[in-house]
Design brief:
Length: 267
């Protein structure tokens, strides 16, 4: 019951944050591209659905960054992983096998992505913004952003190290790059609706997705898929690492969760 409670609590926190961003976010910034781009950077405005000037359709843009997409999927995985044992064990409801498989597929994509997001934020984004004294660093220090970039990884590591250990098997590696592949295609499809296309032309949320860069974009996509596979393997081996190198047991698992969280999280 405690595991069910924690999973549902994680889902409530994650999906609640996503809902708040969709409804109330108000922020804007200018896109940045590499020096050899052929694009004209646009200023992007994020306005929540319930904010003045906002709309329920336009606010979808608020929740389509990779961080939030990954955060949403992780919340959905925890929601399903909490409801399935609650309904089956406590209420005797038989859960259809497609729902069980869907839950595992979502978890396999969301959990490694959470570690990837936290690691990239800590070692790439934070360091680059701090080194250049970029004004966007203040945005990364906001509480709700810190939660997105840290709680996602902590929740995953706690689940693997201390809770029910949702399965993530190496033989399921074919599912690992699905989220990345979907998001790359989604980003390219969004190019003509992400900003004012009449004024600025097509725009991309991330500079490495800029299709005017030629070979550089191709290498970036290959690197993205490689990172997904690497983090999937690391995550799939996490339970073995906990047992073999940390020693297993509750205390050893707590130490492992703390150390792994320290590696990928930054506050």
């Amino acid at each position: 019951e405690f595991v069910i409670f924690i999973r549902l609590l994680n889902a409530l926190i994650m999906l609640g944050i996503v809902a708040s961003l969709y409804l109330f976010l108000c922020w804007d910034y200018e896109l940045e591209y590499y020096s050899d781009t052929k694009l004209r950077p646009a200023r992007v405005y994020y306005i929540g659905a319930l904010r003045p000037g906002g709309s329920f359709l336009g606010a979808i843009k608020n929740v389509t960054s990779f961080t939030i997409v990954s955060f949403t999927m992780e919340g959905l995985a925890f929601l399903l992983a909490g409801l399935i044992p609650l309904l089956s064990v406590h209420y005797g409801i038989e859960i259809p096998k497609p729902i069980l498989r869907l839950t595992i597929a979502i978890w396999i994509n969301a959990a490694p992505s959470a570690l990837l997001v936290s690691a990239v934020t800590k070692y790439v984004l934070w360091e680059n913004l701090r080194r250049t004294e970029h004004p966007r660093l203040a945005f990364f220090k906001k509480p709700i952003v810190l939660v997105q970039h840290n709680f996602n990884a902590i929740a995953v590591l706690v689940e693997v190290g201390l809770m029910g250990k949702l399965p993530c098997r190496l033989q399921d590696y074919a599912l690992a790059p699905l989220l990345g592949a979907f998001y790359v295609m989604f980003t390219w499809c969004q190019a003509y609706s992400f900003a004012d296309v009449q004024k600025y032309g097509p725009q991309f949320r991330y500079p490495f997705m800029d299709t005017t860069l030629g070979l550089k974009t191709t290498l970036a996509v290959i690197a993205i898929f490689s990172f997904f596979m690497v983090f999937f393997v690391v995550f799939a081996m996490a339970e073995t690492i906990l047992t073999k190198y940390i020693g297993g047991g509750f205390l050893g698992s707590c130490v492992a969760v703390f150390l792994m969280s320290a590696v990928v999280c930054r506050f």
